């Protein structure tokens, strides 16, 4: 797997950095045609070879970039301040240039706050203390964010929002049965959207606390699109309450096959509340690989760990999220989070599956690659504008 540069403004090839600019013998400047991903229209490559090397990383960020494009187009159609923006990158550039480097993060907080008020009408129609407490906590977060102009104290903010997460758990416990997380699609949607934003804040906090903040500048906070329930047969349904386990996936800790095809979301507040749920597959954050304390003096282990950490950093700098993995039970989840010597990284299957993974990756490249192609199956060149 090729590793691209840590932080990239998507203005040149994501693998080799070629910007397409050429000079002839007379120093006349020319522009080589570069290729763009046909789905997100942001990832740029100088050749088919570089695009193929980057696909295993880009296919994990492509969805986020498409979401950012959707947000930008919606704003350009409804808000006169954003009439000229064409995609997520131009929206981000305008927010940063006109206001501050932290504005993309504040933009997401405002969107989350707006969604909270929208959803509360469905999961607390009487306007009880439950929704008032949650709204007050959100207002505090928005106010806290206003003090950050050039940079954000992600570690402090992460701790603050962890307290808010505990408040949400209490609200879920106290809510009427029809308005609990497992029953009310709108409450599910808010908790999952809040969790997605919090996961990004955790990521920036991890990087900041370990002196890796340069891998992902504050201005690159992802523009997260709020997920809403859909109306099915006259009833609201939220399709992201559980997570589909990829076919052939095994528990990252014990390597057992999964007994179910879906897993509890990493944002589900009920994941530890009953003995039955503790044995259900669950989604977990794949945190930076690190060795078990018994192996800290082993140079070979430290070298491997350093390489895996480097890989993890490159992945999160592009995807702007903590990678996800799957475990079969709460026991394996605790083992994964607090003491396992990792033998795999987020982009590869476990060792026993690696031969199968290599074959499937080839198929992925053939079938899922969204780079523009011509009628004969070749790659179309796109001029960078």
UniProtKB/TrEMBL annotation:
Molecular functions (GO terms): zinc ion binding
Chain coiled-coil ranges? none
Q: Does the keyword Zinc apply?
A: yes
Keyword Zinc-finger on this protein?
yes
InterPro entries listed in its UniProt record: Znf_MYND (IPR002893)
Q: What is the organism field in this record? A: Tigriopus californicus
| Superkingdom of origin organism | Eukaryota
What's the protein called, per UniProt?
Answer: MYND-type domain-containing protein
